């Protein structure tokens, strides 16, 4: 590639000059290519790898030099001789003559450099290269990475690091390449190369380790090996990036979404390190945005734009607090350096004015932000205030235009609706209010007009308090409300409230019943999503109305199990609201749909918040606060179970071993975490846990769980089994009470199911929550995320292994493959699916992978992926027709016609070829050719599907498992001579008796027409290439083909005679027997009702006479029935110089103009009956539009019988297949999904 000219002082050092002229020099790096350059070459190669020059130094380069100067400039380099030669030839043809015109050397230099810069600019313009794309150095590293590991262009390198790889006890210094889908290592030391390729999706553990020998090392574990890397210049950066890429791979395994590069990144700053790639910056930006969203509970599509140090004036304590300001597309946020001191979220939709205030000594560079509800925030000590103000103004402008657009859309929708809603109420609440009209107050309801919809929290509908009820509990509740109101006055109310230690203190004292819904919405961040999606919930309810699927069935089943003890869910109103919220969410997020425990959580949300608010709280819970908890495999809960085990080991070590032995942690954590303690604690106490959870996140759940274990440590240590331990914990949790609750006592279902032992003394929920903060409050959210990553690797890989075992267990009884072989084949099948996710395929990966499907259906491959596996595994994949045979095979296996095949279908097809008997293999071979082949033009999409209907019953375990071959096979192999006619008939009778059920199926097989027969012959010839018995097989194929041509001709005579008799009854014939004259010639691809099926039983009646034809001699003869056939050329039988046996494949004067024998073999000859030769390029072939003989056809029985006459073919199809060797070969070739480009003897290590 051409590069911007760079000066080189020593042109000869470490380089060999290969070509030169007065202005340019082409050089090759020492130690590269043939010869190696001796010891100097070995040293140079080693230095190139150890130093960063392994990426920077391409093996070839072109230098520019003016005749009298000692300074050279490199203007091009290349990774291959071909590439650099093209550049060199271009220079010689286009530049040399032009340069001879110049007189001044400076002019020459200026011209050359300008010309090269122009070529680069033209290339960038044509290839749409962005200005801020990767640097030249990084592009060189990417090219080297792809060349070394055989990666395609689609595989993007993220970064590369110098390190040592420990191979046994020997460190190999080299380079670690981290790409989107792979971790690769390359080392070259004194002539010895080492390569390692590991798929991120195969990694089971990734951790930093420290030992005396290796203080800083990264350990990468797969299912069968451990790899250790050390001596990093920046181990933290390397580890974080590896962690992030492994996380992306796990996410891909979980929901099958491929990685998509973010193209909206800001341009690279001049000060940025040159080595950083666009992808690395993209991933860094993602990581920062994720932390930012988690810290401030923002919507999951919010992207951080930047952050800066500053101070914030806090009016409640009259101080300037030091912290950081974060600016993103829709929010300005602040958090203090001291974590719990103060945090602030200002949505730009609430901002009215942003202005620069006057600077002073006390307030340097101040910035004032005023909101619509008259709150003003004063930031100071901003480094680049002008830029910041401009950035915020730009975002503010975008936000304003969005709000206007939404208002216009909403007003147009409302005006066209039959119901008009008044716009009063909270600005943030987009729930429709009471309608205005003559009908009085109507409540918005989309499902059933007879059932009122919850436009207010269900709790308020079931709490009609009278003044007489006033008691000390209510007085305490009233004081709590007053405390919160005072807090709002001092710290602000709504989204822009200052969140301080005082806020947390109030939450721990308990949120008042009347404010619970509002504050849950605020602390969870759900208020932001609801405010930015007005009308979304109503639309979702309307769309999901009346729709039924698996999720809705499960929802209906669980509706009456959701807080059945609460009066709000003992009538249709509460049940209907719960149904709407759960169904709407199932339609919003089909990946989750519905999971048990969602009903319990949602019913509590509905008690304290309006229906739409409950929906958005559920969204926040499922998608942000408890990620992956409620998918089909509750992965998130299993991950946090692992995190809880780690925390228990650290914080309650004396209890950990006992709990592990009893297996209690795995039992308790799922029920505690999935329902946020709602299912295991009395309701009025559990809602206090939910209060703390919405304020402080998942750490609250871990803290509380550890507190419960810690409080019961002595009883648990004395437990003898898990049942006793569960009883201890169950009693404790039942005793947790909320003395401040004003709710009527609700019987707790869990307590009703426990035994009649002594009840545990009451435990106050507020004391329990406070003690959890005091003892375990040091648990940090970022530490939890780190632990979650480690556990996620383990959990997802365990799930993948379980899936593999279940698939193998399901299918092992249906096939002759061993369990180990099936497991290896499954890994290859899944790897092919993943490869298409990485590098694209002909179909959408999401359509091919659905975790909710049965195990066998979870991974499916399309035709392009099947072609790759076919070429690697299937014994018939030889020669030029391998690809078309793979397409035919795929269509046959694709039983439901969805252009995808699952693992069972794949194994059924492969099993026949590996373990089927001769008849099954030949039947399979026959069937793939009766199906329409691959068409160059468009075809009817259902044609292949209709065709496969013939074959459903044949690809079954019964037919593919026949271990005892028919009797004729043994005899046929023992006899070296061709079978004579009596023997053939004898074994055919035996076959008929032994396989009656198969015979019933074979009679249903369509006949093979002339075009399909030609394709079958082509495939046969192609399959034998490079076979040890190639010549013998070609002889045998010629004989079988000639025999089948005879049979087809005889059958044609019978059918034409019977048709003539019929036609004479209807109309006179003109004597023209040439079928090509028929205007209604059938299309070859359409065989749903082919003309040769019209004869019905007449064909089968012709079979007995066919057996009387002499079969001993299959040499050509001039008979009236067949004037030409496929024959062997006796003159060339012993000519070893022939690459394959010459075959005659033409017909009589009738067939000659119709039979299109293209490429049956490379040296195929077309011969007329009179010996005159014709062929491709000699005028013997008619145009493609010519029709074939529609009367010519053969049956499967005829095909089978013909093959049985040839010992070589029987032996070929009977040959056993070494499945293990094929699998090993496939694994070696498919190390990274594509064959390695390099053929040198590398020391390659593969994991996965």
UniProtKB/TrEMBL annotation:
Record domain Rab-GAP TBC: where: 510-697
Compositional bias annotation for Polar residues: 423-436
GO molecular-function terms, A-Z: calcium ion binding; GTPase activator activity
Domain EF-hand: 881-916
Region annotation (Disordered) ranges: 422-448, 1056-1141
Entry-linked InterPro entries: EF-hand-dom_pair, EF_hand_dom, GRAM, PH-like_dom_sf, Rab-GAP-TBC_dom, Rab-GAP_TBC_sf, TCB1D9/TCB1D9B_PH-GRAM1, TCB1D9/TCB1D9B_PH-GRAM2
Gene Ontology process terms (BP): system process
PROSITE patterns hit by this protein: EF_HAND_2, TBC_RABGAP
Pfam families in the cross-refs: GRAM, RabGAP-TBC
Compositionally biased intervals (Basic and acidic residues): 1058-1070
Alphabetical UniProt keywords: GTPase activation, Repeat
Domain of life: Eukaryota
PANTHER family per record: PROTEIN VASCULAR ASSOCIATED DEATH 1, CHLOROPLASTIC (PTHR47666), TBC1 DOMAIN FAMILY MEMBER 9 (PTHR47666:SF3)
Function: May act as a GTPase-activating protein for Rab family protein(s).
Name of the protein: TBC1 domain family member 9
Originating species: Gouania willdenowi
